Queue: 2 jobs
Job 1
Amino acid sequence: MVVAATCGHNLTASAQVKLQANNIDEVVKEMTLEEKCHLVLGCGMGYGVDVKFPGTAGSTYAIPRLGIPATYCADSNQGLRMSAHRDFDSRDFYCTDYMTSINLASTWDKKAAYRIGQGIGNETKEYGLDWILAPSLNLMRNALCGRNHEYYSEDPYLSGTIAGYYVRGIQDEGTAACIKHFAGNSQETNRNANDSRMSQRALRELYLRGFEWAVRIGNPWTVMTAYNSINGKATCEDKALTETILRKEWGFEGMVVSDWNAGTSATVSMIAGNDMLQPGQDRQFKELMADAQSGKLPMADLNRNVKRILQYVVKTHSFSDYQYNNEPNLKKHAADVREIGAEGMVLLDNKNALPLKSKANVALFGSTSYEIIPGGTGFGGTMVGRYTVSLVEGLRNAGYQVYKPLLNQYKAHVTAEQKRLYPNGLPPFSLRPLNRAEEIVMKAEDVEKTAANTDVAIITIGRKSGEAADRTVDEFNLYDKEKKMIAQVSDAYHKAGKKVVVLLNVCSPVETASWKNLVDGIVCTWQSGEQVGNSMADVLSGKVNPSGRLPITFENAYGDAASDKTFPSDIMDMKDLATMYMWGGDKAKAKHEPKANIDYTDYNEDVYVGYRYFDSFGKPVSYPFGYGKSYTTFAIQNASIENQNGKFVIKADVVNTGDVAGRNVVELFVAAPDSKKLNKPVRELRDYTKTGILKPGESETVTLTVENADLASFNSKASAWVVDAGKYEFQLASSSEKIDAVLTAKVKGMKIKVNNVMSPKVKLNLLKR
Ligand code: BGC
């Protein structure tokens, strides 16, 4: 690996020409071959001794003689990931621990995404870095993907729009955003070598579509390719993906970077238009030098990539020598994460249990209640938050009493469990999810005593995941002890005439169908960052009226979704293996027969992912896509549609018909005509919007729009986006299952030809209606 200390020294004497925004071609001409081969490689990760920004993902090569500064990058979608402490420095450098992406997407609020992006872009800038490796927006193909909490949705439009506004926020601070992982990175098992095999239609309609929206809305300066392959080619080595689709078809003009240590040949990546390889390796430098000299790596390709890197460099804070202050407004950002974190919590059920009565005496059950989870593991989270507001603290801040005898019992239990699980102390850094405390099995009379002494029970169920490993079916289901706890607590509280509320402090859906009727309220809080306890308390108390909606379906049982059939859910020894690099690399691959769902994964469900499957095939679910309750009720009135020169404009009044103030999300699904014959999903999300806070009786007129061209489906045979002419239904909805108003309009047919690239090399057994 190229080490940071030697990265960017002067190779020759100072040159006349110094980099400016308008002389990039001249600078490229001045560069030596060595300098070019260095510039396209990163400078190692920021984990060495005395690096400028310890604990960050890396930097780019500096060439002082040409006025090319080093620029600095860091993860993540959840906030700037950087060590809070530095050797020989008395200050600290804490960053805001923002919410997981799944929590942010659950707000269905583009402005909220913008604000979070802006906060992260600002911290990146004020701590002296240039480039944040976020957002991640791979499609949630399956509930068990280990990185779902880093992603936005099972729907590409929701993913792409939230990502696009988040990117705008980052870049309005002058910080570079990076949409990743481009594309088809839907599982972590064997992530470096897995081949995602899919139809061109699924690729275009689902796995690329979100990125296309994010490029269109956010105009990101950079894109990161993924570890996996698509239809036989590594994404960082596939010219069709980066040059043909991303640049030629979508008009992307920025820089493409590889995921860290992805790909096998640096030369092939360069030719493919993967401009920069991170974090950079010596073997890659040698390969590029040799291949450039022999002509195997055309100089025109290398120069093109170098030019794109310099186009990025001239936009950075480092290039303009921005005088950063090391003092971003952490207080303001904490207020943002508290507010938006609560807005992204989803009320799944409420039988008069919520909001809690003020000053109630609350019994907190479940180990997670006492070790609340603010985010995921791996590079998707910040390294260390300055603090995490616990649930106990949040409830107390909101004026509740937390029942002490139970608190003391759990405190002792959680401490003992930590010792049992980690006899040598918690590992300082872990890519893999940490084991969590098992639940206490209580005696019935103890639970009854607690019920007698308290007003309400809150049970928290926790699940944590992160990159390099997928979840197992065991983790999707509730463990026996958890189920027992829910049954026992509900029984005792109901006998005492009191309510039970469950908080799902989870990274991705869990099984709910078998136990949800036992309890009186369920809030899916996801993992909302450093203010998690306050955000939870705000929702429980009614200070914030829940307005979050699910960005992913909660299936009844694992196995129900079409993609469950080809996801690595039954590889039980996977947890014990270093899955990140398992069987990766050509040599290792040659040693065994390719295994389904590990070496390759067939996306046989085709376009029927998430609600597209459940709705089209009439399969019941526990909680549908787009679902979420409120403490008030809303009505949709006076809905209308108008065709304005190829753009459909839908208007409706949203009226708060209940007793308390609140916000409402309006979802617009479109159903194409004869969709059965054409084998299309019965409905697809085409737009959404969110009202401001409406007082009881108050109304707001909302406007939703869809371009005619965006109603297209992808026809693989014709290599074209095709809009079938006919009468379409425009459905205003409060989930994919609950349609509140239906409008119809005649749509003109159209066909947009694109390139016939990235086709599958094997015959897939594609699902059809
Ligand atoms: C992750 C990326 C991340 C990179 C740099 C990789 O392991 O997949 O999301 O940006 O590391 O830290």
Job 2
Amino acid sequence: MLIVANWKAYVEDIKKAKSLVATSKKLARTTDVSVVLAPPSPLLGILAEKNKSKVAFSAQDVSVTTGGAQTGEATAQAYAAAGATYAIIGHSERRAKGDTNELISQKLAHAIAHGLTPILCIGEQERDGEGRYLSVVREEITLAIESLMPKERAKVIIAYEPLWAIGKTAAEAITSADLGEMVLYIRKVLAELLPGKSSGHSLVLYGGSVEPGNIRPLAGSSGVDGFLVGHASVDPAAFSLIVKNLI
Ligand code: PGA
């Protein structure tokens, strides 16, 4: 199982960041769960320097630019140099600030070009009775990865994060049955876009109010390969419980 801790902008000081890293390193050492931490970018540079532990680091986004006279931008190459090996791309909080499917597709290409494993966030705003949310999910995946070469498409991790489930509590997150259906649907879409049987190796994660109270049922029968955890990932006790409940 893969757990990605999306710290968003919750962590703003190095002391707290270092203590969360220490907790995660211990979890990674004592369990077989793979832990990826996505700190705010200035902190990532400090935390990931010379990292040799089992914990990996992720950018929360990468710039659409490849560098040059672009004040304020943080490129995929700079993240890779800082020690990141993953990059979250297309998070709904970035889409809300203007990331279109086209920009997201370019960001994926930059991430891959610099050796970062992209974690592509997709997910519908709301669930309707007619299944239109399925087309939203299909479209977001297709537009993001269709311009990549087939072997690049296979590198993309999909994080299904329905907007209606983000930033709530376990009780308001998705049910295991609904998640199971969506995971199957995402795998079907990937099978249409990836060569041969390679989509069978693609990782599909879930994110949206993952907490200690719902991780077990969600992991149990849904077929997901892991989780993207937001608010609960910056609470060391909750994060430890999430990882331990997966074992
Ligand atoms: P949440 O955030 O766990 O706080 O719902 C998840 C995410 O937005 O990645």
